[in-house]
Design goal:
Strand content: over 45%
Radius of gyration: 13 Å
Order of helices and strands: EEEEEEEEEEE
Oligomer: single chain
Shape: globular
Low-confidence stretches: none
Helix content: under 10%
Distance between the termini: 40 Å
Number of strands: 11
Largest sheet: 7 strands, mixed
Structural class: mainly beta
Mean pLDDT: 95
Amino acid sequence: QVQLVESGGGLVQAGGSLRLSCEPSGRTFRDYTIAWFRRFPGKEREFVAAIRWNSRHTYSADSVKGRFSISRDNVKSTVYLQMDSLKPDDTATYYCAGDTGVILSNIRNGAAYDYWGQGTQVTVSS
């Protein structure tokens, strides 16, 4: 079992950047797929990006392609979500999720992940 610890959220002006981090507590991310989701107030959770720890293959939602990128640091055992050109519409609570054995067709489905972080708020002002 792994606990996920997120950090890096905050308040930023439109056009600015933030980097979110997701670290494991209790084990490494080897064999895991790590994903970022976000939840807008009163709305369903939305897939943002994912990375396969072993292969480094990445996947992104169309809404963030070209602006957000997901990566990993093997030494620090950390997954990052670099968010550039932020828009007010990106304002949400961002969650890190992880699990093993996530098949490709489910990688954008939050139900495929058993382990979740506590969430970190990202607010983009206009």
